[in-house]
Design a protein that fits this description.
Elements (H helix, E strand, L loop, with lengths): L1 H18 L9 E7 L13 H8 L2 E7 L6 H10 L3 H4 L25 H8 L5 E5 L15 E4 L4 H14 L4 E6 L3 H6 L5 H23 L6 E6 L14 H4 E8 L6 E2 L8 H9 L19
Parallel strand pairs: 1-5, 1-6, 2-8, 3-4, 3-5
Antiparallel strand pairs: 2-7, 6-7
Helix pairs in contact: 3-10, 6-8
GO molecular function, one term: hydrolase activity
Organism: Niabella drilacis (strain DSM 25811 / CCM 8410 / CCUG 62505 / LMG 26954 / E90)
Pfam families: Phosphodiest
Length: 297
């Protein structure tokens, strides 16, 4: 009996590393909130009680990184497509089509995104895309999104719409793009009082989306992820400074470790990989992102 017991224990120890990285059970909804131009440098000093509560009750990194250049379309593409610009081909701040031919395409005609994976592998699943900056639209295949709303540079409209959709439809995957604080960063500047004041409004919008998830009765089976495309320096971005490259990455909800400061590097294309992993979607070979398993129990 002792020999059998020792053999069982040895097998358990052998499989333990695989057990602790299994997907959290019963994750049925992922809500991705993207805040344009939100540099990670700003979060410690910012008055953002809603987001900081998610950090305290979830996992987070303030050293996650964008791809280069630290500009909008190239990074939103990377975040949603699980790969960098040399693979997906979108290389400019306002790319509407790949400047480099994409190394792979989905059956919808664009480089595979987390939305196209969901549509291909779970065609019955409802997805929702709500975006403030119009540059988001060309990055995601229309046929791969169930609900698609262009907010026309109005973040409050986007949040109102997202709240209504989450409560009524309860999509499997929801992406809400908010254009601030990027606008204030460009018009007034990063690291200014006005920038930090705008982050208070961003925080309130995040809080409303989180509350909608709770009001919809799906909080116990949801994961909420808050991140950005890039930060900024002065009145711009696109360069190589850490203010421009480092972005917040905050995850909260089902199966997420509480108060966990992530120690492993996180790159923006890991976001798509993490969402695909949570929703049990098979990732294409062309993706370069890796699920951030450290964030989960």
């Amino acid at each position: 009996m002792d020999r059998i017991r020792k053999t069982i224990i040895a097998l358990m120890l052998l499989w333990l590393p695989f057990a602790v990285t299994a997907q959290p059970s019963k994750v049925k909804h992922v809500i991705l909130i993207g805040c344009d131009g939100f540099g990670a440098y700003a979060l410690p000093q910012a008055e953002m009680p809603q987001l900081k509560r998610l950090m305290q009750e979830g996992a987070w990194s303030l050293t996650a990184r964008s791809v280069l250049p630290s500009s909008s379309a190239v990074n939103w593409a990377s975040l949603l497509m699980g790969a960098g610009p040399t693979v997906h081909g979108y290389t400019e701040w306002n790319s509407a089509v790949p400047e480099i031919p994409s190394a792979d395409t989905s059956r919808f005609g664009l480089f595979p995104s987390v939305f196209s994976l969901l549509k291909e592998q779970r065609p019955e699943a409802v997805s929702a895309l709500i975006y403030s900056w119009q540059g988001i639209g060309p990055l995601l295949e229309k046929a791969a999104t169930t609900i698609r709303v262009a907010g026309k540079d109005n973040d409050d409209f986007c949040v109102d719409t997202a709240v209504a959709i989450i409560k009524s439809v309860k999509p499997v995957l929801t992406f809400v793009h908010l254009d601030e604080p990027d606008g204030v960063g460009h018009n007034i500047g990063h690291r200014t009082p006005e920038y930090y004041k705008e982050l208070q409004k961003v925080d309130a919008r995040i809080g409303r989306i989180v509350k909608a998830v709770e009001d919809a009765g799906i909080a116990n089976e949801s994961v909420i992820l808050v991140t950005a495309d890039h930060g900024g320096k002065g009145k711009g971005h696109g360069g190589k400074s850490l203010d421009e490259v480092q972005i917040p990455w905050v995850v909260y909800g089902r199966g997420v470790q509480k108060g966990r400061a992530l120690t492993q590097p996180v790159i923006t294309y890991d976001t798509a990989a993490t969402i695909a992993w949570l929703l049990r979607l098979k990732m294409p070979e062309s993706w370069r992102g890796m699920p951030v398993k450290e964030a989960f129990r």
